[in-house]
């Protein structure tokens, strides 16, 4: 992807986000939404930001664990600031994946400096698998939430249909997995999946860690509701959260803005709650996620300052910018066409 096409994609997504936000603000009571946001309670905001720290540490630990499962090495003290940096970049850059590309690249660079021959492939695989672990759990939680909402609305038949679909998918997974492993090009991917997510107790570790991370996303959303003074009981709001956050996976906006709010308006209205309330909670959540990613901005500033210092001294650049012409600069090419939810998206 060229720089001009990347800028165009970012512009289109920004327009989609702004258009959707303008639409929900026009169709609903925009004044009420803004008023709620202005009255955010600092105590609940502080609680949400504190929980986000635990969330990042748990996510970074999951990344470190996945790297170790694939035979690599990554310290937690290195993983945490890198995760913050990735989250910050995903909030600002087009594509919703460039922060993770940078995270994989920088880890590959560090591993290469330590003599790891397969640093590129392992670094990319670890980041992808770590994110897949979280997204699968988020999708599962969203599926359970939908079933609960359908059951609450009295559509019992839909619940059984949903369970039948899940059961069929599980039964088909085994044969499909064996066929994929038979394709030479996918053999390495299948092996990484097995080692990183399944074998040797990895599945239990990945599941527990991802459940905590996903649970923290849901909790921050509920704390956002408390921060703006929403008095709807949490047990009523909880099943609505995961389906709304899952819409952030759609690669059509910037950091999920607009899509998340439109989905909240529709879902809140569908269950008989005020759509403006759902939009206000989602906007508050987006603001808190942005604030929570700001430590990544400090990491970026420190990185740029270090780079300028090395440049003035004439030292080789540690970020790969001094890669010889014709050499493969970094493993980011393996991410071309990939999509992850923008920002510190769910999972």
Describe the structure.
The protein is mainly alpha-helical. It has one domain. It contains 13 helices and no strands. The longest helix is centred in the middle third of the chain and has 34 residues, at 119-152. The radius of gyration is 21 Å and the shape is globular.
Core attributes:
347 residues, 75% helix, mainly alpha
Quick rundown:
This protein has about 350 residues and is mainly alpha-helical.
Q: Which helices and strands, and how do they pair?
A:
Blueprint: H1 3-27, H2 30-38, H3 42-69, H4 76-92, H5 98-113, H6 119-152, H7 156-181, H8 184-198, H9 202-227, H10 234-246, H11 259-270, H12 275-292, H13 294-313
Determine the mean pLDDT: 78
Largest sheet: none
Binned, the helix content reads over 70%
**How much is the radius of gyration in Å?**
21 Å
N- to C-terminal distance: 26 Å
**Topology pattern, helix = H, strand = E:** HHHHHHHHHHHHH
* Number of strand elements: 0
**Which band does the percent of strand residues land in?**
under 5%
- Which stretches are low in confidence, meaning pLDDT under 50 for 5 or more residues running? 318-343
Number of self-contained structural domains: 1
Shape: globular
The total of helices stands at: 13
């Amino acid at each position: 992807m060229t720089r001009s096409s990347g800028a165009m994609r970012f512009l289109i997504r920004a327009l989609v986000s702004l258009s959707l936000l303008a639409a929900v603000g026009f169709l609903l009571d925009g004044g009420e939404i803004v008023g709620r946001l202005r009255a955010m309670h600092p105590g609940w905001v502080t609680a949400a930001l504190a929980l986000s720290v635990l969330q990042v540490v748990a996510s970074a630990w999951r990344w470190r664990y996945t790297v170790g499962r694939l035979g690599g090495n990554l310290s937690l003290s290195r993983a945490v600031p890198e995760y913050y940096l990735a989250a910050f970049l995903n909030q600002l850059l087009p594509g919703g994946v460039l922060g993770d590309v940078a995270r994989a690249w920088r880890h590959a660079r560090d591993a290469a400096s330590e003599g790891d021959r397969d640093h590129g492939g392992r670094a990319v695989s670890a980041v992808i698998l770590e994110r897949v672990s979280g997204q699968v759990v988020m999708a599962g939680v969203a599926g359970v939430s939908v079933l609960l909402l359908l059951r609450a609305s009295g559509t019992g038949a839909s619940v059984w249909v949903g369970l039948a679909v899940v059961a069929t998918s599980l039964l088909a997974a085994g044969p499909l997995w064996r066929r994929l492993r038979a394709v030479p090009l996918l053999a390495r991917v299948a092996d990484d999946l097995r080692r990183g997510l399944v074998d040797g107790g990895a599945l239990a570790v990945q599941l527990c860690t991802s459940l905590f991370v996903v649970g923290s996303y849901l909790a921050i959303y509920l704390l956002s509701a408390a921060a703006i003074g929403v008095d709807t009981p949490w047990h009523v709001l909880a099943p609505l959260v995961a389906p709304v956050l899952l819409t952030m996976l759609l690669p059509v906006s910037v950091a999920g803005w607009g899509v998340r709010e439109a989905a909240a308006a529709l879902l809140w209205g569908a269950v008989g709650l005020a759509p403006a309330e759902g939009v206000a909670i989602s906007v508050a959540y987006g603001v808190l996620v942005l604030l929570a990613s700001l430590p990544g901005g400090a990491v970026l500033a420190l990185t740029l300052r270090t780079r300028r210092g090395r440049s003035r001294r004439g030292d080789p650049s540690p970020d790969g910018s001094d890669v010889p012409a014709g050499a493969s600069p970094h493993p980011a090419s393996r991410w071309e066409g990939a999509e992850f939810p923008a920002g510190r998206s769910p999972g």
